[in-house]
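agent> step 3/5: call structure_predict on target 'VWFA domain-containing protein' (Pseudonocardia ammonioxydans).
agent> reason: downstream docking stage needs a structural representation; sequence fetched in step 2, passing through unchanged.
tool.input:
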Amino acid sequence: MRTGCPGWWPVTEPDLARLVARLTAACRAAGLPVGPDRAARFAAAVVAVDPATTARLRYCARATLIADPEHLAVLDRVLDGVFGGLVDPAVSRGDTHAPPVEPEAAGTPGAGPEHSAVRAPGSGAPRAAAGTAEGGTDVPSAAVASAAERLSEQPFDELSEAELRDLVAAMSAFHLVTPRRRSRRVQPHRHGRHIDLRATLRAARRTGGDPVRTLRRSRRLRPRRLTVLCDVSGSMEPWARALLQLLWCARAGSRAEVFAFATRLTRLTAELGHGTPGAALDRAARTVRDRSGGTRIGDALAAFLDGPGARGAARGAVVLIISDGWETGGPDRLGRQMARLSRLAYRVVWCNPRTRLSGYRPLVGGMAAARPYCDDVVSAHSLAALDGLLAALATPRPGDRG
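tool.output (status=ok):
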């Protein structure tokens, strides 16, 4: 596994933007879940601290680029590779006022938080080290918390595969509940709407043919079908494994039909219907041939509505669409297919991870064409945000009594 090399940040390029880009790229290559948010925090820390030595630069990276203490050793190896050939700026400019660097703070590979403290100039108090956050919270205490607690607010696209596997138990504990509908089957009910004539006559045989009791019946209530359409195109690639894992949990906990699409529609119900999540995701990956390509949501919806949807997968169902709304086809076609879907389905819920961004507005393109036909739009971008998704799936139509 490549963890960087001394030439990645030469002395002649002490540029902040290049530093952030190359360091975060090295972290991701080493398997660390470093996303845009953490990269921005690292850049802000460098600007705020204005580190005079590479040791301080190292601690800026430790404090902002990782949240799991188990990732510290990997980050140290990455930093050694990136900073290995870098001359200390204080030494190169002959800065006699630069704070002394202790041996433990010089970036020795394997040095733990307990041996790493950079002292601020003119004070005997150690600055925040890798094991201590700015607010004084000891980071190793996070190791005591469960994976769900530690990663609940972390966007799925910033999680490593190991961290996603840690969330399987939490996702499997979800109960996907859909609104109930009246089935054709009936059951005895004390306050049923209809008289059960056969049951009443059978009971009358025990009282000499006199119908002393009038027995009633009602139609059984069953949960509505959940139909999931998941976008596995290139723009959704960072979310793909987390969302497919969620689909495995959804399929394991409810009667669901699962489809994937990018440029064409692929049914994944059988692949996600049994086994472990890892095996199910591997089967799904082998089945979907158009992963990480373009997105033709309108064509995929048309194929669904002309095929499985018309045969019952959409009729009266709660339909969940997981997509960021990027459409390489015409948005008009997507709008027409969404109108068809809304007439067939009981409810349409759209899960778009981009809606978590504060400035996001679906004003143009595919999402703008689809939004009028959606009953709910949620982000479901993290474990904590899945509560909003579950609530949207369980919400009945106004005035619907089942």
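agent> step 4/5: record observation. Residues 1-14, 87-145 have pLDDT under 50 and may be disordered.
agent> proceeding.
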